[in-house]
Design a protein that fits this description.
SH3 type barrels, 5 strands
Length: about 90
């Protein structure tokens, strides 16, 4: 099972002609591909799957998802780390 967690784009850049971004997941950052969300920009929240941003979320929806994930123990909002689900 794969879970797409919202993250916020903090920087964008091109890598050999491919739009890329640094995305912040509550303190943990990852470089991801923006090819599927060409209108995204710094400050946007995106859902990431397998290293690709697949959709842009509004800030309210992103925070609602993150709050739910924290509540069920999937994400720790203080560290940004994935938790364990028992």
């Amino acid at each position: 099972m794969c879970l797409g967690v919202p993250g916020r784009i903090t920087q964008t850049h091109m890598d050999r002609g491919t739009p890329m971004a640094t995305v912040d997941f509550g303190g943990v950052t990852k470089d991801v591909c923006l090819a599927f969300v060409p209108g995204s920009r710094v400050g946007d929240y995106v859902i990431i799957h397998a290293g690709f941003a697949i959709t842009v979320l509004d800030e309210e929806a992103a925070h609602a998802s993150l709050d739910l994930f924290e509540e069920i123990g999937i994400v720790d909002s203080e560290s940004g780390a994935e938790g364990s689900v028992s």
